[in-house]
């Protein structure tokens, strides 16, 4: 008795179902060429992402500092140690010697940070001042007394000695700027100094 409708596939040879060694080598060669062409472009992409990520992290820390100053009613300092590649946020130590919410970060090793004061406090000069050692610092208590800092006051404004701009430069020479907004109410990221 024969069953109808059920057919078995005809046996196929192994050669028809498998790849040959030549085909595998050809595919691997094409993949190697594609990777070697796209690798430099991807490396530049990720370096650019590092600069953007650092700028955004610093911007978010300025917003947190301003928010904490207003909500806690205490001056907050965002200090910048450009020589060591570190920065952090803490409450002014005149009210409490230590801040339990203090934060500290380090910049990526390929990022260079410069402090730029376009107008020194108390002067009408608009000459750029890019030297971190000559940045004006208000005489107020600090755990980092000789470092430039952005000072957030309890009314939400910035201290007069706060830098107007910070320039972050990546390994490839591309810069991003963290600058006070034209309204002087917050900081913003810019791709150019103006």
In short:
This protein is of the alpha+beta class and 194 residues long. 29% of the residues lie in helices and 21% in strands. The chain has two helices and eight strands.
Number of structural units classed as domains:
1
Output the structural class: alpha+beta
* Number of helical stretches of at least 4 residues: 2
Overall helicity: 25-40%
Structural key phrases:
single chain, 194 residues, alpha+beta, minor pseudopilin epsh fold, four-stranded antiparallel beta sheet, 2 helices, 29% helix, 21% strand
Tell me about this structure.
The protein is 29% helix and 21% strand. By secondary structure, it is an alpha+beta fold. It has a single domain, classed as minor pseudopilin epsh fold. The strands form two sheets. It has a four-stranded antiparallel beta sheet with strand order 3-2-1-5. Strand 7 and strand 8 form a beta hairpin. The protein is elongated, with a radius of gyration of 29 Å. The N and C termini lie far apart (91 Å). 22% of the residues are buried.
Secondary-structure map with pairings?
Layout: H1 14-17, H2 21-72, E1 76-81, E2 86-91, E3 103-106, E4 112-116, E5 149-152, E6 165-169, E7 175-180, E8 187-190
Antiparallel strand pairs: 1-2, 1-5, 2-3, 4-6, 6-7, 7-8
């Amino acid at each position: 008795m024969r069953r109808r409708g059920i057919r078995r596939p005809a046996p196929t040879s192994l050669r028809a179902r498998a790849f040959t060694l030549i085909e595998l080598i050809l595919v691997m060669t094409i993949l190697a060429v594609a990777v070697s062409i796209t690798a430099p472009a991807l490396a530049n992409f990720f370096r650019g992402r590092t600069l953007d990520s650092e700028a955004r992290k610093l911007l978010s820390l300025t917003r947190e500092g301003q928010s904490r100053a207003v909500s806690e009613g205490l001056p907050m300092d965002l200090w910048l140690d450009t020589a060591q590649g570190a920065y952090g946020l803490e409450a002014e130590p005149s009210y409490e010697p230590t801040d339990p919410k203090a934060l500290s970060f380090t910049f990526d090793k390929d990022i260079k940070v410069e402090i730029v004061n376009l107008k020194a406090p108390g002067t009408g000069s608009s000459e750029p001042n890019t030297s971190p050692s000559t940045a004006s610092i208000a005489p107020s208590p600090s755990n980092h007394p000789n470092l430039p800092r952005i000072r957030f006051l309890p009314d939400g404004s910035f201290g007069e000695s706060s830098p107007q701009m910070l320039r972050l430069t990546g390994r490839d020479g591309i810069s991003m700027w963290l600058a006070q907004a034209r309204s002087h109410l917050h900081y913003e990221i810019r791709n150019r100094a103006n």
